[in-house]
Amino acid sequence: MKKILFISNSARLYGAERALLTLLKKLDRRKFTPVVILPEDGPLRRELAALSIDVGIMPLFWWTETPRQLYPWREPFRKRCEKLSKLIEEEKIDIVHTNTTVIAEGAVAAFLSGRPHVWHLHEVLESHTDIKLALPLKQAYEFIGLASDYVVAVSKTLASSVSASIPPEITKVIYNGVEEIKAGAKSEIRKELGISESTLLVSAAGPVIGVKGYENFIEAAGLAAGKKPDVFFVITGSVEDRALYARLESNVKRLGLESKVRFPGYRDDLRAILGEVDIHVVSSLSESFSLTALEAMAAGVPVVSTRCGGPEELIEDGVNGVLVPVNEPQAMADAIVKLSESPSVRRAMGKNGQERFSRYFTAQACADSFERLYDAIGNRRSLGEEEEKRFAEYRESLYRKLDSQPGDFFRYYLKVASAGLKRFGVVRSGR
Protein backbone atom coordinates (compact mmCIF):
# COMPACT_ATOMS: atom_id res chain seq x y z
CA MET A 1 0.00 0.00 0.00
CA LYS A 2 1.41 3.39 -1.07
CA LYS A 3 0.27 6.65 0.50
CA ILE A 4 0.15 9.50 -2.01
CA LEU A 5 -0.12 13.19 -1.19
CA PHE A 6 -1.97 15.10 -3.92
CA ILE A 7 -1.51 18.87 -3.93
CA SER A 8 -4.03 21.07 -5.74
CA ASN A 9 -3.66 24.71 -6.71
CA SER A 10 -7.31 25.42 -5.95
CA ALA A 11 -10.35 24.12 -4.10
CA ARG A 12 -12.62 25.11 -6.96
CA LEU A 13 -13.75 22.83 -9.78
CA TYR A 14 -12.05 24.03 -12.95
CA GLY A 15 -10.38 21.73 -15.48
CA ALA A 16 -7.29 20.65 -13.51
CA GLU A 17 -9.25 20.18 -10.31
CA ARG A 18 -11.95 18.18 -12.07
CA ALA A 19 -9.25 16.01 -13.64
CA LEU A 20 -7.79 15.36 -10.18
CA LEU A 21 -11.20 14.53 -8.74
CA THR A 22 -11.89 12.07 -11.55
CA LEU A 23 -8.50 10.40 -11.02
CA LEU A 24 -9.17 10.01 -7.29
CA LYS A 25 -12.61 8.53 -7.94
CA LYS A 26 -11.05 5.76 -10.03
CA LEU A 27 -7.81 5.20 -8.07
CA ASP A 28 -7.58 1.66 -6.64
CA ARG A 29 -7.91 2.25 -2.89
CA ARG A 30 -6.73 -1.30 -2.19
CA LYS A 31 -3.27 -0.27 -3.47
CA PHE A 32 -3.11 3.48 -2.88
CA THR A 33 -4.21 5.73 -0.01
CA PRO A 34 -4.77 9.32 -1.19
CA VAL A 35 -4.39 12.41 0.97
CA VAL A 36 -5.14 15.80 -0.57
CA ILE A 37 -3.86 19.28 0.33
CA LEU A 38 -5.93 22.30 -0.74
CA PRO A 39 -5.18 26.02 -0.23
CA GLU A 40 -8.64 26.77 1.19
CA ASP A 41 -12.14 25.40 1.60
CA GLY A 42 -14.29 25.01 -1.50
CA PRO A 43 -16.40 22.64 -3.60
CA LEU A 44 -13.47 20.30 -4.30
CA ARG A 45 -13.03 19.63 -0.56
CA ARG A 46 -16.69 18.67 -0.26
CA GLU A 47 -16.45 16.32 -3.24
CA LEU A 48 -13.35 14.67 -1.75
CA ALA A 49 -14.95 14.34 1.67
CA ALA A 50 -17.83 12.48 0.01
CA LEU A 51 -15.22 10.00 -1.26
CA SER A 52 -13.87 9.54 2.32
CA ILE A 53 -10.53 11.05 1.34
CA ASP A 54 -8.48 12.89 3.97
CA VAL A 55 -8.21 16.57 3.05
CA GLY A 56 -5.76 19.09 4.47
CA ILE A 57 -6.04 22.87 4.32
CA MET A 58 -2.68 24.65 4.10
CA PRO A 59 -1.62 27.97 2.54
CA LEU A 60 -0.46 27.51 -1.06
CA PHE A 61 0.04 30.27 -3.60
CA TRP A 62 0.81 30.44 -7.29
CA TRP A 63 4.50 31.00 -8.12
CA THR A 64 3.50 33.57 -10.71
CA GLU A 65 4.07 37.21 -11.47
CA THR A 66 0.59 37.72 -12.89
CA PRO A 67 -1.67 40.23 -11.13
CA ARG A 68 -4.55 37.72 -10.95
CA GLN A 69 -3.63 35.85 -7.77
CA LEU A 70 -6.14 33.45 -6.24
CA TYR A 71 -5.27 34.52 -2.72
CA PRO A 72 -4.20 38.02 -1.59
CA TRP A 73 -2.68 36.81 1.69
CA ARG A 74 0.41 34.70 2.04
CA GLU A 75 3.06 33.43 4.42
CA PRO A 76 6.70 33.01 3.30
CA PHE A 77 7.24 30.40 0.59
CA ARG A 78 10.18 28.89 2.48
CA LYS A 79 8.04 28.42 5.60
CA ARG A 80 5.22 26.86 3.59
CA CYS A 81 7.63 24.34 2.05
CA GLU A 82 9.13 23.44 5.43
CA LYS A 83 5.67 23.01 6.99
CA LEU A 84 4.57 20.78 4.11
CA SER A 85 7.78 18.74 4.40
CA LYS A 86 7.04 18.15 8.08
CA LEU A 87 3.54 17.01 7.19
CA ILE A 88 4.95 14.56 4.63
CA GLU A 89 7.12 13.03 7.34
CA GLU A 90 4.32 12.88 9.91
CA GLU A 91 1.84 11.33 7.50
CA LYS A 92 4.42 8.83 6.21
CA ILE A 93 3.77 9.85 2.61
CA ASP A 94 5.37 7.65 -0.07
CA ILE A 95 4.83 9.84 -3.18
CA VAL A 96 3.99 13.52 -3.66
CA HIS A 97 1.84 14.42 -6.68
CA THR A 98 1.57 18.13 -7.60
CA ASN A 99 -1.47 18.85 -9.75
CA THR A 100 -0.81 21.76 -12.19
CA THR A 101 2.26 23.83 -12.98
CA VAL A 102 1.46 26.84 -10.81
CA ILE A 103 2.04 25.36 -7.34
CA ALA A 104 5.69 24.74 -6.34
CA GLU A 105 5.50 23.99 -2.59
CA GLY A 106 4.96 20.27 -3.13
CA ALA A 107 8.07 19.91 -5.28
CA VAL A 108 10.33 21.63 -2.75
CA ALA A 109 8.75 19.85 0.22
CA ALA A 110 9.19 16.46 -1.48
CA PHE A 111 12.85 17.27 -2.06
CA LEU A 112 13.36 18.37 1.55
CA SER A 113 11.76 15.17 2.85
CA GLY A 114 13.47 12.89 0.32
CA ARG A 115 10.22 11.66 -1.23
CA PRO A 116 9.59 10.94 -4.93
CA HIS A 117 7.69 13.69 -6.69
CA VAL A 118 5.35 13.62 -9.71
CA TRP A 119 4.60 16.97 -11.33
CA HIS A 120 1.35 16.83 -13.31
CA LEU A 121 1.33 19.61 -15.93
CA HIS A 122 -1.94 20.95 -17.33
CA GLU A 123 -0.90 24.25 -18.96
CA VAL A 124 0.99 25.24 -22.11
CA LEU A 125 2.70 28.32 -20.75
CA GLU A 126 4.45 29.63 -23.88
CA SER A 127 1.17 30.90 -25.31
CA HIS A 128 -0.84 31.31 -22.10
CA THR A 129 -2.28 34.82 -21.77
CA ASP A 130 -3.02 34.60 -18.04
CA ILE A 131 -0.04 32.88 -16.37
CA LYS A 132 3.56 33.99 -16.10
CA LEU A 133 5.81 32.14 -13.66
CA ALA A 134 8.24 33.82 -11.27
CA LEU A 135 11.21 32.31 -13.14
CA PRO A 136 11.96 32.69 -16.87
CA LEU A 137 10.15 29.90 -18.67
CA LYS A 138 13.22 27.85 -19.61
CA GLN A 139 14.51 27.98 -16.03
CA ALA A 140 11.05 27.22 -14.67
CA TYR A 141 10.82 24.07 -16.77
CA GLU A 142 14.35 23.07 -15.76
CA PHE A 143 13.33 23.50 -12.13
CA ILE A 144 10.24 21.33 -12.71
CA GLY A 145 12.40 18.60 -14.24
CA LEU A 146 15.02 18.74 -11.48
CA ALA A 147 12.34 18.67 -8.79
CA SER A 148 10.52 15.63 -10.19
CA ASP A 149 10.97 11.91 -10.59
CA TYR A 150 8.37 12.02 -13.34
CA VAL A 151 6.72 14.89 -15.18
CA VAL A 152 3.30 14.02 -16.55
CA ALA A 153 1.92 16.03 -19.47
CA VAL A 154 -1.76 15.81 -20.37
CA SER A 155 -1.01 15.77 -24.10
CA LYS A 156 1.77 15.28 -26.62
CA THR A 157 1.45 18.98 -27.39
CA LEU A 158 2.33 19.88 -23.82
CA ALA A 159 5.11 17.28 -23.62
CA SER A 160 6.66 18.73 -26.77
CA SER A 161 6.55 22.26 -25.35
CA VAL A 162 8.69 21.25 -22.34
CA SER A 163 11.00 18.81 -24.12
CA ALA A 164 13.90 21.25 -24.48
CA SER A 165 14.19 21.66 -20.69
CA ILE A 166 12.82 18.45 -19.15
CA PRO A 167 14.54 15.10 -19.87
CA PRO A 168 12.37 12.89 -22.10
CA GLU A 169 13.14 9.83 -19.98
CA ILE A 170 11.16 11.29 -17.06
CA THR A 171 8.36 12.80 -19.18
CA LYS A 172 5.18 10.80 -19.58
CA VAL A 173 2.01 11.61 -21.52
CA ILE A 174 -1.16 10.58 -19.70
CA TYR A 175 -4.37 11.89 -21.22
CA ASN A 176 -7.07 13.16 -18.89
CA GLY A 177 -10.18 11.03 -18.75
CA VAL A 178 -13.81 11.69 -17.95
CA GLU A 179 -16.54 9.41 -16.73
CA GLU A 180 -19.26 8.20 -19.05
CA ILE A 181 -22.34 10.40 -19.08
CA LYS A 182 -25.22 8.56 -17.48
CA ALA A 183 -28.09 7.67 -19.78
CA GLY A 184 -31.04 9.95 -19.23
CA ALA A 185 -28.99 12.82 -17.75
CA LYS A 186 -31.04 15.92 -18.55
CA SER A 187 -30.75 19.63 -18.02
CA GLU A 188 -33.37 22.37 -17.97
CA ILE A 189 -31.00 24.65 -19.88
CA ARG A 190 -33.29 25.14 -22.87
CA LYS A 191 -36.17 26.09 -20.59
CA GLU A 192 -33.87 28.46 -18.67
CA LEU A 193 -32.74 30.09 -21.91
CA GLY A 194 -36.29 30.27 -23.25
CA ILE A 195 -35.53 28.37 -26.46
CA SER A 196 -37.37 25.52 -28.16
CA GLU A 197 -36.16 21.99 -28.76
CA SER A 198 -35.76 22.82 -32.45
CA THR A 199 -33.41 25.77 -31.88
CA LEU A 200 -29.79 24.94 -32.63
CA LEU A 201 -27.90 25.28 -29.33
CA VAL A 202 -24.16 25.98 -29.55
CA SER A 203 -22.08 25.91 -26.38
CA ALA A 204 -18.68 26.95 -25.11
CA ALA A 205 -17.46 26.31 -21.57
CA GLY A 206 -14.69 27.43 -19.26
CA PRO A 207 -13.76 30.46 -17.16
CA VAL A 208 -13.93 33.88 -18.79
CA ILE A 209 -10.21 34.52 -19.32
CA GLY A 210 -8.26 35.66 -22.36
CA VAL A 211 -6.82 32.31 -23.39
CA LYS A 212 -10.32 30.88 -24.00
CA GLY A 213 -10.76 33.09 -27.07
CA TYR A 214 -14.35 34.09 -26.30
CA GLU A 215 -14.07 37.34 -28.25
CA ASN A 216 -13.60 35.22 -31.38
CA PHE A 217 -16.51 33.01 -30.32
CA ILE A 218 -18.82 36.04 -30.07
CA GLU A 219 -17.69 37.28 -33.48
CA ALA A 220 -18.35 33.83 -34.95
CA ALA A 221 -21.78 33.81 -33.26
CA GLY A 222 -22.64 37.05 -35.03
CA LEU A 223 -21.55 35.70 -38.41
CA ALA A 224 -23.38 32.38 -37.94
CA ALA A 225 -26.58 34.01 -36.68
CA GLY A 226 -26.62 36.16 -39.82
CA LYS A 227 -27.02 32.99 -41.88
CA LYS A 228 -28.97 30.82 -39.42
CA PRO A 229 -31.44 32.91 -37.41
CA ASP A 230 -32.71 29.98 -35.30
CA VAL A 231 -29.48 29.46 -33.36
CA PHE A 232 -28.55 30.22 -29.76
CA PHE A 233 -25.15 30.49 -28.07
CA VAL A 234 -24.33 29.82 -24.42
CA ILE A 235 -21.02 30.26 -22.57
CA THR A 236 -20.88 28.53 -19.18
CA GLY A 237 -18.04 29.50 -16.87
CA SER A 238 -17.18 31.80 -13.99
CA VAL A 239 -16.11 35.37 -14.71
CA GLU A 240 -12.42 35.61 -13.78
CA ASP A 241 -11.54 38.60 -15.96
CA ARG A 242 -14.17 41.29 -15.46
CA ALA A 243 -12.67 43.66 -18.02
CA LEU A 244 -12.86 40.91 -20.64
CA TYR A 245 -16.44 40.09 -19.63
CA ALA A 246 -17.40 43.74 -20.10
CA ARG A 247 -15.89 43.68 -23.60
CA LEU A 248 -17.79 40.50 -24.43
CA GLU A 249 -21.07 42.04 -23.31
CA SER A 250 -20.29 45.14 -25.37
CA ASN A 251 -19.55 43.00 -28.43
CA VAL A 252 -22.82 41.11 -27.97
CA LYS A 253 -24.70 44.44 -28.05
CA ARG A 254 -22.66 45.72 -31.01
CA LEU A 255 -23.56 42.63 -33.01
CA GLY A 256 -27.23 42.71 -32.00
CA LEU A 257 -27.00 39.33 -30.28
CA GLU A 258 -28.71 40.20 -26.99
CA SER A 259 -31.47 37.66 -27.71
CA LYS A 260 -29.09 34.96 -28.91
CA VAL A 261 -26.21 34.83 -26.40
CA ARG A 262 -26.23 34.06 -22.68
CA PHE A 263 -23.56 33.85 -19.96
CA PRO A 264 -25.15 31.76 -17.19
CA GLY A 265 -21.91 31.67 -15.18
CA TYR A 266 -20.34 28.61 -13.58
CA ARG A 267 -22.51 25.49 -13.76
CA ASP A 268 -22.00 22.22 -11.94
CA ASP A 269 -24.36 20.47 -14.37
CA LEU A 270 -22.23 21.00 -17.49
CA ARG A 271 -22.30 17.32 -18.40
CA ALA A 272 -26.12 17.35 -18.37
CA ILE A 273 -26.15 20.61 -20.35
CA LEU A 274 -24.00 19.00 -23.04
CA GLY A 275 -26.74 16.41 -23.45
CA GLU A 276 -28.98 19.24 -24.70
CA VAL A 277 -26.37 20.86 -26.96
CA ASP A 278 -26.15 20.42 -30.74
CA ILE A 279 -22.57 21.71 -31.27
CA HIS A 280 -19.81 22.40 -28.76
CA VAL A 281 -17.10 24.96 -29.56
CA VAL A 282 -13.55 25.29 -28.23
CA SER A 283 -12.47 28.78 -29.28
CA SER A 284 -9.21 28.83 -27.29
CA LEU A 285 -6.00 30.52 -28.34
CA SER A 286 -4.06 27.73 -26.61
CA GLU A 287 -5.11 24.52 -24.84
CA SER A 288 -3.04 21.70 -23.43
CA PHE A 289 -6.00 19.30 -23.59
CA SER A 290 -9.66 20.51 -23.22
CA LEU A 291 -11.82 18.57 -20.81
CA THR A 292 -14.95 20.20 -22.19
CA ALA A 293 -14.19 18.88 -25.69
CA LEU A 294 -13.79 15.41 -24.22
CA GLU A 295 -17.01 15.72 -22.23
CA ALA A 296 -18.81 16.78 -25.40
CA MET A 297 -17.43 13.69 -27.14
CA ALA A 298 -18.65 11.51 -24.26
CA ALA A 299 -22.09 13.11 -24.67
CA GLY A 300 -22.15 12.40 -28.40
CA VAL A 301 -21.86 16.08 -29.40
CA PRO A 302 -19.72 17.14 -32.40
CA VAL A 303 -16.95 19.62 -31.54
CA VAL A 304 -15.75 22.63 -33.50
CA SER A 305 -12.31 23.54 -32.16
CA THR A 306 -9.46 25.83 -33.01
CA ARG A 307 -6.14 24.20 -33.81
CA CYS A 308 -4.86 25.32 -30.43
CA GLY A 309 -2.84 22.29 -29.30
CA GLY A 310 -4.37 19.55 -27.19
CA PRO A 311 -7.80 19.40 -28.88
CA GLU A 312 -6.07 18.33 -32.08
CA GLU A 313 -5.23 15.06 -30.31
CA LEU A 314 -8.90 14.53 -29.38
CA ILE A 315 -10.64 15.60 -32.55
CA GLU A 316 -10.20 13.98 -35.93
CA ASP A 317 -11.09 16.67 -38.44
CA GLY A 318 -14.23 15.70 -40.34
CA VAL A 319 -14.72 12.54 -38.25
CA ASN A 320 -15.89 13.59 -34.79
CA GLY A 321 -15.63 17.34 -35.24
CA VAL A 322 -14.14 20.18 -37.22
CA LEU A 323 -10.78 21.90 -36.68
CA VAL A 324 -10.40 25.56 -37.64
CA PRO A 325 -7.49 28.03 -37.41
CA VAL A 326 -6.95 30.07 -34.25
CA ASN A 327 -8.19 33.67 -34.36
CA GLU A 328 -10.38 33.14 -37.44
CA PRO A 329 -14.03 33.74 -36.45
CA GLN A 330 -15.20 33.39 -40.04
CA ALA A 331 -13.84 29.83 -40.28
CA MET A 332 -15.47 29.01 -36.93
CA ALA A 333 -18.80 30.46 -38.11
CA ASP A 334 -18.61 28.54 -41.40
CA ALA A 335 -18.08 25.26 -39.52
CA ILE A 336 -21.03 25.98 -37.22
CA VAL A 337 -23.30 26.84 -40.15
CA LYS A 338 -22.25 23.77 -42.14
CA LEU A 339 -22.96 21.44 -39.22
CA SER A 340 -26.26 23.20 -38.51
CA GLU A 341 -27.46 22.30 -42.01
CA SER A 342 -26.96 18.55 -41.59
CA PRO A 343 -28.43 16.78 -38.55
CA SER A 344 -27.25 13.44 -39.98
CA VAL A 345 -23.63 14.64 -40.08
CA ARG A 346 -23.92 15.90 -36.51
CA ARG A 347 -25.28 12.53 -35.38
CA ALA A 348 -22.51 10.63 -37.18
CA MET A 349 -19.79 12.87 -35.74
CA GLY A 350 -21.32 12.55 -32.28
CA LYS A 351 -21.32 8.76 -32.53
CA ASN A 352 -17.71 8.76 -33.74
CA GLY A 353 -16.76 11.00 -30.84
CA GLN A 354 -18.34 8.66 -28.30
CA GLU A 355 -16.50 5.69 -29.80
CA ARG A 356 -13.18 7.55 -29.72
CA PHE A 357 -13.80 8.59 -26.12
CA SER A 358 -14.59 5.00 -25.08
CA ARG A 359 -11.48 3.69 -26.83
CA TYR A 360 -8.86 6.15 -25.56
CA PHE A 361 -10.07 8.68 -23.01
CA THR A 362 -12.08 7.08 -20.22
CA ALA A 363 -11.54 7.97 -16.57
CA GLN A 364 -10.46 4.41 -15.84
CA ALA A 365 -7.83 4.45 -18.58
CA CYS A 366 -6.34 7.60 -17.04
CA ALA A 367 -6.32 6.09 -13.53
CA ASP A 368 -4.78 2.85 -14.79
CA SER A 369 -1.92 4.81 -16.37
CA PHE A 370 -1.22 6.69 -13.16
CA GLU A 371 -1.32 3.49 -11.12
CA ARG A 372 1.32 1.96 -13.37
CA LEU A 373 3.42 5.10 -12.90
CA TYR A 374 3.08 5.01 -9.11
CA ASP A 375 3.98 1.29 -9.10
CA ALA A 376 7.14 2.04 -11.07
CA ILE A 377 8.39 4.67 -8.61
CA GLY A 378 10.90 3.48 -6.05
CA ASN A 379 13.25 5.76 -4.15
CA ARG A 380 13.70 9.39 -5.10
CA ARG A 381 15.73 9.98 -8.25
CA SER A 382 19.33 11.01 -7.59
CA LEU A 383 20.65 14.25 -9.08
CA GLY A 384 24.18 14.79 -10.27
CA GLU A 385 26.40 17.43 -8.73
CA GLU A 386 25.60 20.04 -11.39
CA GLU A 387 21.89 19.27 -11.21
CA GLU A 388 21.94 19.63 -7.42
CA LYS A 389 23.63 23.00 -7.80
CA ARG A 390 21.11 24.28 -10.37
CA PHE A 391 18.19 23.05 -8.31
CA ALA A 392 19.52 24.85 -5.22
CA GLU A 393 19.97 28.06 -7.23
CA TYR A 394 16.41 27.93 -8.59
CA ARG A 395 15.00 27.14 -5.15
CA GLU A 396 16.84 30.06 -3.55
CA SER A 397 15.64 32.32 -6.37
CA LEU A 398 12.05 31.29 -5.63
CA TYR A 399 12.58 31.90 -1.93
CA ARG A 400 13.77 35.43 -2.68
CA LYS A 401 11.11 36.31 -5.26
CA LEU A 402 8.10 34.75 -3.60
CA ASP A 403 8.96 35.95 -0.09
CA SER A 404 9.53 39.58 -1.12
CA GLN A 405 5.89 40.49 -0.43
CA PRO A 406 4.98 39.30 3.07
CA GLY A 407 1.25 38.88 3.53
CA ASP A 408 -1.33 38.91 6.26
CA PHE A 409 -1.21 35.35 7.54
CA PHE A 410 -3.72 36.22 10.26
CA ARG A 411 -6.35 36.80 7.55
CA TYR A 412 -5.67 33.36 6.15
CA TYR A 413 -6.09 31.78 9.59
CA LEU A 414 -9.41 33.57 10.05
CA LYS A 415 -10.61 32.34 6.66
CA VAL A 416 -9.80 28.74 7.57
CA ALA A 417 -11.46 29.11 10.96
CA SER A 418 -14.56 30.73 9.47
CA ALA A 419 -14.99 27.77 7.12
CA GLY A 420 -15.69 25.61 10.16
CA LEU A 421 -12.64 23.42 9.67
CA LYS A 422 -11.42 21.40 12.63
CA ARG A 423 -8.01 23.00 12.91
CA PHE A 424 -5.39 24.72 10.81
CA GLY A 425 -3.15 22.26 8.96
CA VAL A 426 -4.39 18.78 8.14
CA VAL A 427 -8.15 18.43 8.36
CA ARG A 428 -9.47 14.89 8.66
CA SER A 429 -12.55 15.69 6.64
CA GLY A 430 -12.56 12.31 4.96
CA ARG A 431 -13.10 10.32 8.13
How would you describe what is shown here?
With 431 residues, the protein is α/β, with parallel strands linked by helices. It has two domains: 2-177 and 364-427, Glycogen Phosphorylase B (Rossmann fold); 189-361, Rossmann fold, CATH 3.40.50.2000. Helix content is 42%, strand content 16%. It is built from 17 helices and 14 strands. Strands 7-6-5-4-1-2-3-14 form an eight-stranded mixed β-sheet. A six-stranded parallel β-sheet has the order 10-9-8-11-12-13, with helices on both faces. α2 (43-50) links the parallel β2 (32-38) and β3 (54-57). α3 (77-90) crosses α4 and α11 crosses α14. The radius of gyration is 22 Å and the shape is globular. The two termini are 19 Å apart. The model is unreliable at 66-73 and 405-431 (pLDDT under 50).
Q: How would you briefly describe this protein structure?
A:
The chain is of the alpha/beta class. The protein has 17 helices and 14 strands.
Q: Structural class of the secondary structure composition?
A: alpha/beta
End-to-end separation: 19 Å
Instruction: Tell me how many strands there are.
Output: 14
Helix content: 40-55%
CATH class group of the largest domain: Alpha Beta
Q: Characterize the main sheet.
A: 8 strands, mixed
Count of the separate structural domains: 2
Morphology: globular
Strand order across the largest sheet? 7-6-5-4-1-2-3-14
- Percentage of residues in DSSP E strands: 15-25%
Mean pLDDT: 89
Summed up, the helix count is: 17
Q: Indicate the low-confidence ranges by residue numbers.
A: 66-73, 405-431
CATH names the topology of the largest domain as Rossmann fold
Superfamily (CATH H level) name of the largest domain? Glycogen Phosphorylase B
